[in-house]
Amino acid sequence: MPDSAGPEYAFLKGHGTENDFVLLPDHDGSVHGDLSAERVRALCDRRAGIGGDGVLRVVRESDLWFMDYRNADGSVSEMCGNGIRVFARHLVEEGLVDPSQPIPIGTRDGVKTLLVDGDLITADLGEPTVLGESKVAVPGHAWVARHVDMGNPHAVAFVDSLDDAGNLLAAPEHDEATYPHGVNVEFVVRRGDRHVAMRVHERGSGETRSCGTGAGAVMVAAAVADGALSSDGGPPAEDVAYRVDVPGGTLTVTWTAGNRILLTGPAVVVARGVTDL
Ligand SMILES: N[C@@H](CCC[C@H](N)C(=O)O)C(=O)O
């Protein structure tokens, strides 16, 4: 234990396809209610802290669990598709929810419903919004990218090679007018029929090994390009599923005829402890 006079807090560490998070149980909001950007950055620091792409504060609000999500730089986002699946795994392991039933979890993008099936957890990310195109660029390369809103903003660029995105240390250039609050940028290649692979630069976290809402946005952009929409431009006439490979594993994204995006993949908690960070 650190030799510190400061208070100590329980934490957990988990990931979904290696998109990793520090979880902070704070059921009544009394422990971390003042969670500052500085503390989030300290917790997510991979050398001086616990390390993570983001923080999930676990709060009970009225009759609902609420995921208070923060990016590694301390900024707030509306939603996190992998984070909410890890959040559900934590609730199940602590006996706080019944895994045989749909699990509702509140987010800044409304209530999402999770289903647990053994190692796999599916998050209903809700309805996608397919918008226009604008340019994204990294040093030496520029592409037209599709704007897909998954509750949070995404720009999806189809590229010849995932290597063309470079080291992704810096945020790709993007259209500030289209994305006034920043954007998550996905780079995609085709791997086969209804099978793609992606890399991502996440707003507020840098390059991550996976992004659940990003996988959803990529699937939507690919399905639109593949002509999977119904003839009136609405959702697919029947459910369509894509395999989305990410550096940290594989996700399955289904666009239902009811216009819902379902994100399925593994989600695990790998450590529990206390910290004075
Ligand atoms: N990793 C997440 C997305 C986290 C939020 C994102 N960086 C943003 O700022 O919108 C996911 O799995 O969806």
Automatic annotation (TrEMBL):
The active site is at C80, C211. The keyword Cytoplasm applies. SUPFAM superfamilies: Diaminopimelate epimerase-like. Its EC number is 5.1.1.7. Keywords: Amino-acid biosynthesis, Cytoplasm, Isomerase, Lysine biosynthesis. PROSITE patterns: DAP_EPIMERASE. Substrate binds at N19, N71, G81, N82, N152, N184, E202, R203, G212, T213. It is found in: Cytoplasm. InterPro entries: DAP_epimerase_AS, DAP_epimerase_DapF. Its main location: cytoplasm. NCBIfam families: DapF (TIGR00652). Catalyzes the stereoinversion of LL-2,6-diaminopimelate (L,L-DAP) to meso-diaminopimelate (meso-DAP), a precursor of L-lysine and an essential component of the bacterial peptidoglycan. This is Diaminopimelate epimerase. It comes from Nocardioides endophyticus. The gene is dapF.
